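Problem 3 from the worked examples.
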Amino acid sequence: MKTFAIILALVFVAFLFRCTSLGDQRGDVRYRIAVEVETPEGTKTGSGVIESRLIRPSWDFREYHDSLAGEAIPVDLGKAGTVYFTLAGNASSYEKAGRIDDKWDGFYGLWNDLLPTEAEMKKRCWGRIPFCRQTALSKIRKPVELPFDAHPLLVRFANEADPQSIEYVSPGGTAMTKAFGPGIYLRRTTIVPTSDRTTTGITKRLPWIDKMLAQYPGIRADGGIHGLTNWQFAPLPHQFYIKYLKMEHRP
């Protein structure tokens, strides 16, 4: 009887470990994104580091969810202005179906050929494939070129001091030429996992971001905004983009 009680206690402890302790394990992967845009003045570049975090909270029995932290990447095009690579995505979904994903996750799947098989991940991580995949990604240092259909949303401002002057820019074909002028086009974007810290400093260029995030905490990914009926479900209101110019991890 005593032995049975001990076994039962061990099983209970194992259950608690699986349901709670695992919630403290995070799969954090940082990615450096380097952008090259061709202009009449030469190649313009910009880069930044974003962080993807995968976690199942200890108080929640749901599947893992991920969150994204980082800032939009500005590329100064000289006289033509600045284009921003946001954390919203992806551009292809918007152009084909008018749908905006909650966040850009274009980096998922780019390294699938370097990852363990699904069967191997199930065995290694007690079936927690998302966590296992994230852990494996953190060890990869191979850069890849981002295909155009996996690009995040690109935006520009007619006036950076005015958030309402934001405009969508398509990354493909001659769209950037139409938006910024002759000879300007997206040359390539590369992305690679890194141990560098996430990039900061966008508030120096767009000092109104933090104020607007605090003013409109109910910004929704579908373009609607809680408490603002005149903007609700409006097609890409300027407040919608603020969320994707600067993001922090959610619990």
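Problem 4, a separate protein:
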Amino acid sequence: MWCMWCRYLRQHASAAHQVADGTSELLHERKASAKLPRPGKLQVVMPKPGSHSSGDDTVTLGLSQLRELACAARASAEAWGIIGAQLLSRLPKPYSEVTCRRHGPKGKRNKFKVALVHKLPELLGHGSWKPSRERNESYGLSISSNELLVDAKTSWALANAIATLYQLLEVRTLSGQDTIITVPGCPHEIIDFPAFPHRGLLLDTSRTYYPVPWIKTLIASLAEFKINILHLHVTDTTSWPLEVEEFPELTERLSYRDNIGEKQIFSRADIRELVEYARLRGMSLLPEVDGPAHAPALATGKPLWLTAGGTSNYSTQSFGVEPPPGVWNLSNDSALQVVKSVLTQLQEDFSTSPFLHLGGDEPVAGAVCDTLADETQKELCLTQCTTLNGRTGSPWRGGCAVVPLRPADSCANVTWWFPEVLNALVQKWTSPQWHQLQQPCRQQHGQASG
């Protein structure tokens, strides 16, 4: 199954590379979907629902039924309308061109009933997104010969229900007739909820640049399988593709170039476009700017922004695990202002993310921590955050932050999520301190502390 999933992503993603820059979004999605396996081809719902019973009947969905589906969608919430339209756009003509009409061509009420059990609140707005562990994503889906019922109390739950419905559909072409859409295995009774509230994929856009259409295709693919987080590892040792308005020299000097010399960067408009595209599919983008280590690219802009100056000399490996080394030099006022500007801009542009990821891996304490830890905490003020975004209280929405904690002598890819913020941006971690910080997380998840 995992191989099937990987093959699916490769096929779906490759379609995006064939789309010209000026192609409309609708044409882009249709070209991408042409590479998809037919709905129903997988024969199973992925991921496996919590409870799923099925029968032996096959229900045919005509235009009137899908029109009813679109109507129930758009009359209830923005989420249903967008997601319902997305479902229809994946289907072949004439189904993809269904418009919302409450009655059939002759004015008679359609017999096939499509309904939502709950009227959904508008939960997909910017700035209102809860952390994934606090979202209600459970749903119920019932399909019989005469009705389709969706029991979803939130827009995120509805997105999951629509994703399941799409996987149950089967496109069939009868001999000499038009294409029809069926739902085999009826009646279906599904009650589902996520086993893991955070279901994400990390995309490294620093070591490899991916154009916006490619990322949008990836988002659409992930949404179909109920992935709710796309973790964008935006910057790293190799490049800085993120546009920062106050410091244009970052992308001017530190970004990749294409074959004709154009900068391969993400403008603020690009980021907001991706955030909106994901929002309408029930997904959020989690931004990561790797620091305080993995930052030697900054030395290309201003060497004094880093300790060790980004040198490639292996003898300076005490300043960083991965050569060329380099750690944010937050004793430098200019470097400090860069960090503040970047974090403030991330908060503004990634409007649906309740978290900010700071990487935090592989710093070497001797580079800056022993001498500047106290001053750094005073300057950045992570527990009050007034210097970052002008707000008091919690440094990130909802009192949450991503605090990646890793021991200095280990390269293990471990990320701990805490509801409270720790002063951990620049600090020397020794083994005893590391185990101390692990303790509350282990207790929270009922794990042994040994």
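Solution to problem 4. Confidence is low (pLDDT under 50) at residues 1-42, 95-110, 309-317, 368-450. The domain at 50-192 is CATH 3.30.379.10 (Chitobiase; domain 2).
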